[in-house]
């Protein structure tokens, strides 16, 4: 089985098995505490046969991954590991995570944004458990470590690495931010995860699914791997399918929009003055340079935009490129009926166009031509003046969501 090494939080080396065809949709497997990646072997085989590329990771302090000398097994270290691995992958995976792995995934996706993955499968990992039972399990693992000292494939220090109660509270706070397809799997006989606690947890998510595996306790992957594998494969085929969406002329316009959304863009606010000298503006991400000599750029404005007639009538207009801290401005200028400029610091430019203060870049343009572009008007302008701030990073838009640059 091919091996893959990743570099996690504070340089920790993390070991993973990889199986399947790399061009297939990816699935990242995270085991529970006191386990290793070997627990997933039957599931990995099933997923590969179903056309998935599977990465099965050893958490820090487990299996062949580093057992840090400093004993960093707190939740932030584990979350940092997961974020590092996700940033190294060539595509956004579905994360399948059991108990401790599920807590790590829930916090990483809830606090950092669900754009890091395409789906989440949680295996007996809710934020409500009987703490006394959890401590009882922890004590049993410590006793086992004393008996089998030197032969266990995990570092007993991880058991004292994080506080269970604060971890569960953090998961509860972050779970509502996860907008991905979610499946929660529970062993019907589990003593650690109550049925009612699992269903309450599911209310945090948008359109989640719940699978209870009969005749199984907490370790559903071992006790009923056949039913567990069937539940996961069925969920993936329906909610995160393998096929590539395709648009053909005359078919669903939403598919075309999603395809166009694969091209990452910046975010701008296009501005002008009306004949009554009132500022107008709207958010637009269809913006591009046309020519350097002469200096031309263009923006595309929807024909349904309320500001279109005023923009067409103006002799000059401005394009304000937003930085990562101006997402609120983008939202303000995207909503109809907002008193946009009352909420936004701005000033008049040299050519009497409204310029947003502190933008990544401001362009003042003389209107040169307006071209019909289907359901948009293409506004072409000659750049008369431009200024920019080289110390800031751009606000990006990709796949229908705001993004930020990642520096490797």
From TrEMBL:
MF terms in GO: FMN binding; hydrolase activity; riboflavin reductase (NADPH) activity
InterPro entries: AB_hydrolase_1, AB_hydrolase_fold, Flavin_Rdtase-like_dom, NADH-dep_flavin_reductase, Split_barrel_FMN-bd
Keyword Translocase attributed: no
Protein name: Alpha/beta fold hydrolase
Lineage top rank: taxon: Bacteria
Keyword Hydrolase: yes
GO annotation terms (biological process): pyrimidine nucleobase catabolic process
Domain Flavin reductase like residue range list: 260-404
SUPFAM superfamilies: alpha/beta-Hydrolases, FMN-binding split barrel
Keywords: Hydrolase, Oxidoreductase
Pfam family, one: Abhydrolase_1
